[in-house]
């Protein structure tokens, strides 16, 4: 099996992203009796930012110079759903979008700076919510809409290619949408 581009680890960034796992399998999914929206499978994401000591740079507070943002799936599949390779690939696309968002978040976190610890904490929360909630929701919705939730094979292939490119280049946009 080909390894997901999400597995690529770049050492030149001080804040990195560590997905676990990098590639989804049906064994990563919890079986549930129903899902909202008539879905056969659904995935959400856990982002973990470790609590590390702050540093002072030029009189300002910044986050620790190095740490990893952990990303993991919260995946569910409806009992009796046809667990096809196409559906799993679509869910992997959602997961890879989350990983791409985490890389964009990492890039922004590296530059956060504030005059006080409280101001840095506020900036961290604002930046996290911008990426994890606002931007990721728009990209995930765009992915589902364009691909017909995996039913449009041509759009699915185009999005998976764009997602792979965003992961390998640590792009700040995906299909014209900010990460």
Describe the protein's architecture and organization.
The protein is of the alpha/beta class and 179 residues long. The chain has one domain (8-169). The protein has three helices and eight strands. The protein has helices at 85-110, 117-147, 153-169, and strands spanning 15-19, 29-32, 41-48, 55-57, 60-62, 67-78, 173-174, 177-178. Strands 1, 2, 3 and 6 form a four-stranded mixed beta sheet that branches. A hairpin with a 2-residue loop joins strand 7 and strand 8 (177-178). Helix 1 runs antiparallel to helix 2 and helix 1 runs parallel beside helix 3. The longest helix is centred in the C-terminal third of the chain and has 31 residues, at 117-147. The two termini are 28 Å apart. The model is unreliable at 1-12 (pLDDT under 50).
């Amino acid at each position: 099996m080909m390894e997901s581009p999400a597995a690529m680890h770049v050492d030149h960034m001080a804040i990195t992203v560590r997905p676990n796992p990098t590639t989804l399998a049906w064994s990563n999914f919890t079986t549930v009796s129903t899902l909202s929206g008539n879905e056969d499978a659904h995935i959400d994401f856990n982002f973990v930012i470790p609590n590390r000591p702050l540093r002072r740079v030029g009189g300002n507070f910044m986050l620790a110079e190095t740490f990893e943002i952990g990303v993991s799936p919260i995946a569910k599949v409806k009992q009796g759903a046809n667990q096809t390779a196409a559906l799993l690939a679509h869910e992997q696309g959602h997961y890879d979008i989350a990983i791409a968002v985490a890389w964009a978040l990492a890039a922004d976190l590296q530059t956060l700076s504030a005059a006080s610890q409280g101001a840095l904490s506020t900036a961290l929360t604002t930046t996290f919510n911008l990426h994890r909630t606002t931007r990721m929701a728009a990209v995930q919705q765009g992915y589902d809409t364009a691909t017909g939730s995996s039913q449009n094979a041509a759009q699915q292939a185009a999005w998976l290619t764009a997602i792979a490119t965003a992961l390998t280049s640590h792009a700040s946009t995906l299909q014209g949408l900010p990460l």
